[in-house]
Specification:
By secondary structure, this protein is of the alpha/beta class. The chain contains 15 helices and eight strands. It has two domains: about 160 residues, NAD(P)-binding Rossmann-like Domain (Rossmann fold); about 110 residues. The N terminus is likely disordered.
Length: about 300
């Protein structure tokens, strides 16, 4: 029989196992909303002690003791350690065991489930390179939740408490979900780096690139938020300006095949958005497509 647990988030005794940047941020965010973080654990005890010192009535404990003290345990350890951590601890029937990975399936918690625990996933879709910044960004961010029954209700209540938008994930979809999210996160850095490389190749100071390009990137994101992706599209593709695109291609071909291929692939994807925007007719789209396919 599962132990009945009050679904109100503040009633749950919560433990955080893993005191890295995500664990720090989640623990502090929950504590700020009145949740009881009763224990934190980490492979490095000083990290657990430093985090516990910032939380009211929280103890830094070995992982086994931290798990035993809680109704709900968040595993904020690295992906490759999730299954081993879950298998190495004792769980009780009705206990909640949740990992915070975007890419790892909830099945990694099978050892806890076999002992009667309820298992799930709770992945905040945000950047945690700076925990202080991440803490400020959590409200309004999305959190991907995968759970059933009582645990699903509790995790959605936690999301609401943190001001986050829940996104329900189906089993087997986490890697695709997480990989796609990379296009809106770290892959943006790859595109900025490509721009910086091209500027450097034509003699522009590389150190000036980020300072110059970030306002442009922010403006693009603001437009996407206000208008949607297709209507925010700007530049020569959106205007059907074949001549400008041809000059771009000539310049990139001269710089090297990798630059040209990168530009062509991104431009092909923009054709889809250009078609959705309704600003170009079929003939203009066909001319652009033919140009991008030309050697």
């Amino acid at each position: 029989m599962s132990e009945p647990v009050d679904p109100r988030p503040q009633s749950l005794r919560i433990a955080i196992i893993g005191a890295g940047r995500l664990g720090q941020t989640l623990a502090r965010a929950l504590a700020a909303q009145g949740c009881r973080i009763v224990a934190v654990a980490s492979r490095a005890m000083p990290a657990a002690q430093a985090l516990a010192a910032r939380l009211p009535a929280c103890a830094a404990l070995p992982s086994g003791e931290a798990a035993a003290a809680a109704d709900l345990v968040f595993l904020t350890v690295p992906d490759d350690a999730i299954a081993a951590t879950a298998a190495g601890l004792r769980w009780r029937a009705g206990q909640r065991v949740v990992h915070c990975s975007g890419a790892t399936e909830v099945a990694a918690l099978a050892a806890a489930q076999e002992q009667g625990a309820l298992v799930g996933g709770f992945h905040p879709l945000q950047i945690f390179s700076d925990p202080e910044r991440a803490l400020a960004l959590l409200p309004g961010s999305t959190v991907a939740i995968e759970a059933e029954g009582e645990l699903a209700i509790e995790l959605h209540a936690l999301a609401a408490l943190l001001g986050m938008q829940p996104l329900a994930l189906r089993p087997g979809t986490r890697a695709a979900y997480h990989g796609a999210a990379s296009f809106a996160a770290s892959f943006l850095l790859s595109m900025l780096d490509e721009a910086a490389q091209v500027w450097a190749a034509i003699g522009l100071p590389r150190e000036q690139a980020l300072r110059s390009l970030l306002p442009l990137a922010r403006g693009t994101l603001d437009a996407a938020e206000a208008k949607g992706l297709a209507q925010a599209l700007a530049g020569p593709i959106s205007r059907g300006d074949v001549g400008v695109v041809a000059r771009h291609l000539q310049a990139f071909d001269a710089l090297g095949e990798s630059h040209a291929q990168f530009y062509r692939e991104l431009s092909r994807r923009q054709l889809t958005l250009a078609a959705e925007s309704g600003r170009l007719d079929a003939a203009a789209l066909a001319r652009l497509a033919a140009l991008l396919e030309s050697a």
